[in-house]
Amino acid sequence: MNMIPMEVPNYSPADFSQETWWLTVLKAVFIIVFLILNVLLALWVERRTIGRMQTRPGPNVAGPFGLFQAIADAVKLLFKEDMWTRKSEKFIYLLAPTIAAFCAFMVYAVIPFGPSVSFFGHHTPLQLTDFPVSVLYILAITAFGVYGIVLGGWSAHSTYPLFGAVRSAAQVISYELAMGLSIVTVFLVSGSMSTSGIVAAQTNLWWCVGLLPSFLIYVISMIGEVNRLPFDLPEAEGELVAGHMVEYSSMKFAWFFLAEYINMFNVSAVCTTLFLGGWSAGPLTLIWQGADSGWWPVLWFVTKVWACMFFMIWTRGTLVRFRYDQFMRFGWKFLIPVALAWFVLVAIVQGLRAFTDMDAQQLLLGLSVICVVTMVVLFFWPESKPTEEESKSDFDAFAGGYPVPPLPGQELPASTRHAVPAKSAKEVEK
């Protein structure tokens, strides 16, 4: 057995040595324009796709095929009356949508669109910036963006927005733990926390294959992070009307709406970067050597991002909303334990890889299959039924002063106001 540790692959990070100030400004402007245009397109694609799923045409009046419907809706929001609630905290009420929108735009700063290219005589990577802890920066920004939702729900001093804000905070705490554990496994295998380094580490194998459980956990968690069906409980229309956005109108509502869809692109871009090879063409390079050179990688990156976007649109059109207790139970009792167990397995494999000459890829693939099968079995494993003593225990719906529904296994006691059976005519005569 060879006890000499194997060398960590030397993945060169993005080189910004030839970067100029006007190139940085141009990249920043491109990211803003790219996100806004893609949000407008995503609104049209989502409404048309869900319309087709529900056997209706969707928007088809404003412009050819209804392409200008999103622009018409944006203009309408601009000219809507700006409403204020009298008891709201004015400063925080205004600050909340600003925080949500600002944090949404900041994530793409470290996302690599492609390799280094020649642009007006300057050799520059297709990325605004990069540093050794880029992924930690993404996690920090996304966590800070939740403050916009929480402050927006609290500052309105209204019931439904507050409920939505509390739900959103609980949801982020629950699902960010599982998401973080799935991302840490990528750090272990890639040997880097830089986004460009992680993309370079997937030259031979995309982590959606080598780290399949991490990929599945991230996909589930990202839907919960952006409050999309079946996890849109913070803004459930049937319960909370619109959650934290109930008391917002005009441009402030538009900022929240824009931030929600930009966050969808953010989690899709992170999924593409960490698990889908980033801008790499992958198997296409076997038949086309120039697929990863020049400006072509931008096309592969955008295609992967839109594939993730379509997946979230598809889930909205096909799945139903979780009950809140089911949603929280799924996060804490299923996702987090599975993510933690998988992280430990990956750490053990990396330890064996460091001190032996074993093939880590084949071992990871085998463990991935075993872990996915275990996840499916645990998900469909029937829950233990309550015992007779527990089921017979009295349930007081007004114990806390407010009426609450019974939990699984609990039954409401028989009502004391049963209808008295009507007496027959003969009994009345007697």
Concise summary:
By secondary structure, this protein is mainly α.
How far the N terminus sits from the C terminus, by CA atoms, comes to 101 Å
Mass-distribution shape:
globular
Percent helix, as a range, is 55-70%
Unreliable residue runs: 1-11
Strand order of the main beta sheet, please?
1-2
* H/E topology pattern: HHHEEHHHHHHHHHHHH
Q: What value does the average pLDDT take?
A: 80
| Computed structural class | mainly alpha
With helices defined by DSSP (H or I, 4 residues minimum), what is the helix count?
15
For the sheet with most strands, the description reads: 2 strands, antiparallel
Number of strands: 2
User: What radius of gyration results from the CA coordinates?
Assistant: 26 Å
Beta-strand residue percentage: under 5%
Secondary-structure topology with pairs:
Blueprint: H1 21-53, H2 69-78, H3 90-106, E1 114-119, E2 122-126, H4 134-155, H5 159-190, H6 195-201, H7 207-210, H8 212-225, H9 237-240, H10 250-275, H11 296-318, H12 324-355, H13 360-380, H14 388-392, H15 425-429
Task: Give an overview in words.
The protein is built from 15 helices and 2 strands. The protein is mainly alpha-helical. The protein has a domain of 288 residues. Strands 1-2 form a two-stranded antiparallel ribbon. 36% of the residues are buried.
